[in-house]
Amino acid sequence: MSNPLQENVLANPVGTTLDRYIMRKQSEFPFATGELSQLLRDIALAGKIINREVNRAGLIDIAGAFGNQNIQGEQQQKLDVVANIRFIRALKNGGQACAILSEEEDDIIYTGNDQGKYVVAMDPLDGSSNIDVNVSIGTIFSIYRRVTPVGTQATREDFLQGGRKQVAAGYVLYGSSTMLVYTTGHGVAGFTYENSLGEFFLSHPEIRIPQDGATFSCNEGYWYQYPESIRAYLTTCKQRGYSGRYIGSLVADFHRNLFKGGIYLYPPTEKTPEGKLRLLYECYPLALLIEQAGGQAQSGHEAILDIEPVYFHQRCPIYVGSTDMVKEVLSLANAAHEAAC
Questions:
Q1: Residues at the annotated binding site for Mg(2+)?
Q2: Counting Cβ atoms within 10 Å, is residue 264 exposed (0-12), middle (13-18) or buried (19+)?
Q3: What CATH number is given to the structural domain containing 251?
Q4: Do residues 246 and 282 lie in contact, with contact meaning Cβ atoms separated by under 8 Å?
């Protein structure tokens, strides 16, 4: 006698694993010879390890502050240090990255793999101060094909190519479920981690952000430090009944707006006139993702991906999300600028 429940369960396929998806899509990668595929697998492996560390942080005393400041002058959390070490080890052992740039380090990290064809810029653990209160955090990464000769040591030129030169970018979100979202310049795909199998499975193919939204994400604690045009835009949002949603973890705020529509703003302030977010390993990768998903990322003066990089830990303002919302905030900013002139 047949068992309907068993037949129903077995009829549902397990899904497409990240490895299988990468293999299918390898022909889309520039210079497809397998190295970039392996590099993405190495990043996914590190993401699995960080997922484990995040889930047991309160049990093994790796939550809280580490006691040092990073190059940004920010208080390092214990998990910042752990994530930085884990990702560096994974990329060194993988052999495809010749050098790494991390938010947690002053200068280039050499992997010893001078034959590697790629460099990686990363924020190993964005929003790590939120781990103590069990709020979603994430990893952001950006990949470039090196411009210096293979076999030599990487230089700053390999990292300062500009956002349009990224061959891949993405993030890992450690939340109610762990997700890897990435692009290689051919759309955006999302993968959800299945703990019991230890695999990322394709859960969100061909992600597209809604053209418009009704959510704004910013730290309104800086209200009186924001430019007048930004305050005017936020006031308009409130008059329309839009929802204010701000988690304080960049990846989590970005992720929500990517799926539901909305705008994330980190304007210049009196304290940070050049902006707060880092260009190379926060703004660039998220800008590539949002453009590939049909949205926009602007600095207030130009597209984020068109900004010329000058130094490693460069900062910039960012307005990123649904196209109509980004256009509106920029039109108000431009009108204010013209009136001032």
A1: 103, 123, 125-126, 282
A2: buried
A3: 3.40.190.80
A4: no
State residue 230's pLDDT score. Answer: 95
pLDDT tens column, 129-158: 787 788 899 999 999 999 999 999 999 999
**Shared-domain flag, residues 242 and 182:** no
Binding-site positions for substrate? 126-129, 219, 246, 264-266, 276
Question: Does residue 44 sit in the same domain as residue 121?
Answer: yes
Buried b vs exposed e over 28-46: b needs ≥16 C-beta within 10 Å? ebeeeeebbbbbbbbbbbb
Phi/psi of residue 195, nearest 5 degrees: -60, -40
Give me the mean pLDDT over the 186-208 stretch. 95
- Whether residue 194 sits in one domain with residue 55: yes
Q: Does residue 172 sit in the same domain as residue 268? A: no
Rounded distance between C-alpha atoms, residue 134 and residue 173, angstroms: 13
Vertex 323, ends 277 and 168: CA angle to 5°?
55
Binding residues are 103, 123, 125-129, 219, 246, 264-266, 276, 282
| Nearest alpha carbon to residue 166 among 201, 133, 142 | 142
Higher pLDDT, 22 or 74: 22
Q: Is the pLDDT of residue 64 over 50?
A: no
Q: Is the distance from CB of 287 to CB of 303 less than 8 angstroms? A: yes
Name the residue with tokens 């890897």: 180
